[in-house]
Ribulose bisphosphate carboxylase large chain
Amino acid sequence: DYKLTYYTPEYETKDTDILAAFRVTPQPGVPPEEAGAAVAAESSTGTWTTVWTDGLTSLDRYKGRCYGLEPVAGEENQYIAYVAYPLDLFEEGSVTNLFTSIVGNVFGFKALRALPLEDLQIPTSYTKTFQGPPHGIQVERNKLNKYGRPL
């Protein structure tokens, strides 16, 4: 039961948290709080089995937290689940690690019918650890022939 550990509506987000918004469609019979908590768990520290290292680290320090749920207007059984992740979960400078951790594991979770990632907010302190294109942005724009807009 992930809800007891990972659903924390009283949590106040920090400037250093990575914030994700998922559109959650739970399977029939799965409460939205459990579905949101499962997303937070499965994309951070949750696992289906006991791990011997559980006693060596602080779950509270590393766990993702579903801190909010809102019904999607006009959609039956769909919710926006807001999940906060501590920066310590992620390797600095690795976009691959970030996205693999947040979206790589949870999309196969059986309690959910659908789980698109709607929004992601990354703290400036973390984005500064990314090196960017090896040749600079202008070379990348020239290669792609894309100017005056985001790539």
Remarks:
- The first strand starts at residue 18 and ends at 26.
